[in-house]
Structures are given as C-alpha cells and as structure tokens.
Amino acid sequence: MTTAQNLQATTNLHNGVKMPWFGLGVFKVEEGSSTVESVKSAIRNGYRSIDTAAIYQNETGVGQGIKEALAENGLSREELFVTSKVWNDDQGYESTLAAYETSLQKLGLEYLDLYLVHWPGKDKYKETWRALETLYKEGRVKAIGVSNFHIHHLEELLKDAEIIPMVNQVELHPSLSQQELRDYCAAKDIQIEAWSPLMQGQLLDNPVLTEIGAKHGKSVAQVILRWDLQHGIVTIPKSIKENRIVENASIFDFELSAEEVARIDALNENRRVGPDPDTLLF
Predict the structure, then answer these.
(1) I want to staple 58 with a disulfide (CB 3.0 to 4.6 A). Which of 25, 35, 47, 144 is the partner?
(2) Active-site pick, 56, 100, 115, 125
C-alpha cells in the first residue's frame, strides 16, 4: 500500500528515478488549445506528471502547455515527469530511435522522463526494447518501460533484455484489476501504472462505488483513484475540465478501509474497454 500524502508524492522506480503516483493522461485530447490548456491547468493545480504518446497526435500541444506552465508557475523542467510512447508503426531498432527524436522535437524537450513501448504486437518489441536500452544507456531518457504487456510478453522480453522495464502501463480499473499481472510485476520490481483508471466513465454509476463514495463525501472517480493509490498503482486520469482535474486529484484527505478495498477488488470481471494485447497484432 502506498503512503502517498499529496499530489507530488513519488514512487522510486527500480533505477532510483522518482515517478509521481498521480498524473494527467491526454489520450484523445484534441491537439491545440484543448491539450495546451489541460496541461497548464494540471500543472497550475499541482500535477507534476504528464502522459502522452506519439499516436495521440498532441505532443506539440503538450510541449506548448509545459513550456507556458513552467514559465507561469516558476517551475523548472526537472520538476516535471513527462512520458511518451513509441507507436506500433515505428517499432524496430532504428525506427524507434528516430521516433524518439520526433517526439522530443514535437514536445520541445531535451529528454523524456519515461519512454514506453506502446503495445507488444507480434514480433518487433524486442528490437524496439533494444533501442530503448540504447537511449537509456546514452542518458537520453531517465527511465524506460512497456505498455499493455501481459506476463508472457514480459517473460519473452526478459529472455534477452539487459534492462528490466521500470514501468508497465496497462488498462486497469475495478472491472479489470489485473491481480496476477500486478503480482508478477511486483516480484520483478516493475511499477504498474493504470491507463483508463475510470474505465472511460463506465463505472461512475456503480452502486458499490457510489455507496463507498457517499460514505466519504467523495465522487466515484475519487474512490477509484484512491483505490489505485492504496494498491501501489500509479494512475493517470484524463480530463480537459479544470474543475475535474482538481477534483480527480483531491484524494489525499481520506482513506479506504480494508473492507472497502476488498469490496472494490471484488468488482473485477476481467472486462476491458480497450483491445486485448494478445489480439492487437501488427
């Protein structure tokens, strides 16, 4: 269980890099002012982690939002944790190195804090991982990891990898709690991170979550995000509305009981809103 006390609280990745427990995801946020303003709003309200990806096509807006927010809030680049991901079309050794440069250019940054292999696919992810290892060894990126990797993908990767991934970012929410994968990653010291922690809004009417929220005077979203933290899961909810960005992060003033955590755990149905990594082959 994490003891995160505030929005800037961090977990130590296995290479010593500090990663915030809580961040802003920008999946499906339209490039341009929506992205710029959501990033600025998050940073202004205390967020220090921003998660994007090449395929989101909003890295330029993320970079602009970061640049403006740093200036307006008197922060340094080193105080932020920025993540992006190599897309499936760019997998392979040389193409991944090129994709990293493109992401940096769009973001207007000199380095990333975390770079992820976005999906395992069929057969290129080992080559892609080798490129991430090169970037890491050269000091071009602070930490490297994977996204959407099942246990068997990780096992295959680790047969040849020189560096164990620091993070595995996966779809994870009360309807898909990924307990077996979480246990495996914990044993390997790979930090689990949840994308779509609110199941794209599909859990907001759940009666169990509603009841627990009412008891604490909290929204269902806040209950789920608190559940993430108490399980030691890094979480990156998405929103473009400032009031929701603030509300999502207002989860450090209450605690779920062991019984409440167990009730939420029991909601698991192994149900996804995104693709199963075993069926998204390329």
Answers:
(1) 35
(2) 56
